[in-house]
Design brief:
This protein has 244 residues and is an alpha/beta fold. The chain has nine helices and nine strands. The chain has one domain (4-239): Rossmann fold, CATH 3.40.50.720. The longest helix is centred in the middle third of the chain and has 29 residues, at 98-126. It binds NADP nicotinamide-adenine-dinucleotide phosphate.
Length: 244
Amino acid sequence: MPSTVLILGATSDMAVALAKKFASKGHNIQLAARNADRLKPLQSDLSIRYNITSSIHEFDAVKFEQHQSFWDSLSPKPDITISVMGYMNDNDKVIADQNETLKTIHTNYSGPVSILNIVANDYSAKEQGTIVGISSVAGMRGRQSNYIYGSAKAGFTAYLSGLRNKLFHQKVHVLTVLPGFVYTKMTEHLNLPKLLTAQPENVADAVYKGVQKKKNVIFVKWFWRWIMLIITSIPEFMFKKKKL
Ligand SMILES: NC(=O)c1ccc[n+]([C@@H]2O[C@H](COP(=O)([O-])OP(=O)(O)OC[C@H]3O[C@@H](n4cnc5c(N)ncnc54)[C@H](OP(=O)(O)O)[C@@H]3O)[C@@H](O)[C@H]2O)c1
């Protein structure tokens, strides 16, 4: 029987690439996002192109009180759940406005944790399932230009690590994805270094392989592991003087 993949935050460029990748391998796809009507073109594209079953669902990461009923409404329950949603704004704007601060924290941390706890409880009881979290290398060290987003992603990465440790004993696989720079709507206003920047399709390929091989943590482009090793090795007394 083909397995079903749930994608949370399905309007994102990465999510579109992920949906196409998993559909091309014969998986059925459940697409979930705010204003889910926007997903109809993707849904019909997936069905026509890959001859799989797909469905669309209303889901808002920060409407915590709706998360249990959202999960209860899914039929069948997905075998693989991928949390893609996130939010990043200019750090100066984020620290100047409490609504922006909370939106950043809730979209990148509290919302994903709220829904993934529900998914994890179900998978744990069944002793099967795969959870994928798209986090960020920004969570590996706080920088003055991005520390609200970065700290929310740091929390999410730590959450996924703890979840993996807990669910390993129930045969549930948890994959953490650290993409590095990726060309998407989130970064279109930034002047990203071409050599260091991935395409959404690279993320989709890496996630698909990571799920197949039951990896724990993946960097989409191999060199990000070494870049972050250098960045995290700089002593704090030096790091604080830099304008990063
Ligand atoms: N691009 C990069 O360089 C990069 C690097 C590392 C990690 N990431 C992470 O990769 C993931 C995908 O981002 P992206 O680059 O593909 O950017 P994107 O296209 O801006 O995607 C962000 C997604 O999050 C969704 N979202 C925001 N608030 C939501 C909420 N309250 N409820 C449900 N969905 C919500 C957005 O949905 P709407 O359409 O409804 O706004 C959108 O689908 C994010 O977690 C991001 O932090 C990105």
